[in-house]
Amino acid sequence: MQSFKDKLNREQLPQHVAIIMDGNGRWAKSRGEKRTFGHKHAIKAVRDVVNACNEIEIPYLTLYTFSSENWKRPEDEVDTLMSLISETLLLEAEEIFTKGLRMHVIGDIGKLPALVQEQMMHLVDITKDNKRGNLILALSYGSQHEILSAVKQISHKVKTGELTEDQITEKVFENHLYTKDFPPVDLLIRTSGEVRISNFLLWQIAYAELQFLDILWPDFGKEDFFKCIYDYQNKERRFGKTSEQLEENI
Ligand code: IPE
Ligand code: IPE
Ligand code: MG
Question: For ligand 1, which residues put their CB under 6 angstroms from it?
């Protein structure tokens, strides 16, 4: 059977894909294993989507890896997740570098264990001149916190006279978000069957196509990813206009 990859229109790829990688716990449970078993098996799926993006040259991929709410999970699960993130960063660093990917991290990084912070920052630093694609990890990330922090930064600037109220445009607001250097999300994918956003990129998905898949994250592979891109390309993105206007290019 022909791969979805070969059916893609390479001229119309999404510039920014974001993924809520959900379902590790249920995947493990269905096998009679502990939740952390699912997290370990999630890494292959991460590698697969990173490679898939790299193959077709999607310039921005954001992965929801750990939310600000995930700190509320049992301590041993949080510890396992932090160790896994640390191990994976160590094991994959060279591969990420040689693939020409530039690494970024968004979220309340100060809350992460010191080792993870150091590894992250090192990877961000050594890949800063890479140009083939951007891999963005959302770690200890919560969108409401991000938006609130932008509001606080802006109100401080208004107070000190650095900005006037009239100057607060959408662009100015965006410049105070973690994602200021990235384009808006074109396609948001969530695995696991849940149909919710869970505090992820609320501002940035304003006009994203949303796909909710009945696949648990550890089962997600390259072909699933290419199918998502294929389905994305079969949507008409109208941005408020009519189909007729789009056809006439006005
Ligand atoms: C996603 O899988 C991984 C993280 C949130 C870190 P879950 O651990 O949420 O798995 P489910 O949703 O309980 O199955
Ligand atoms: C969202 O998944 C966070 C990540 C995938 C990192 P959750 O499993 O934490 O979301 P909820 O709690 O089901 O909404
Ligand atoms: Mg979950």
Answer: 21-26, 35, 66, 70, 81, 192, 217
* Closest by Cα among 5, 127, 19, 7 to 56: 5
Quote the pTM value: 0.98
CATH number of the CATH domain containing 121: 3.40.1180.10
Based on the residue annotation, tell me whether 186 is a catalytic residue of this protein: no
Q: Look at residues 72, 107, 109, 95 and name the one whose alpha carbon lies nearest to residue 200.
A: 107
**What tokens appear for 35 in the block?**
């939740």
Q: Which atom of ligand 1 is nearest to the CA of 23?
A: 14
Is position 4 within any domain? no
Question: pLDDT tens per residue, the chain (250 residues)?
Answer: 899 999 999 999 999 999 999 999 999 999 999 999 999 999 999 999 999 999 999 999 999 999 999 999 999 999 999 999 999 999 999 999 999 999 999 999 999 999 999 999 999 999 999 999 999 999 999 999 999 999 999 999 999 999 999 999 999 999 999 999 999 999 999 999 999 999 999 999 999 999 999 999 999 999 999 999 999 999 999 999 999 999 998 8
Amino acid at 223: E
Number of domains in the chain: 1
Nearest CA to ligand 1 atom 12: 23
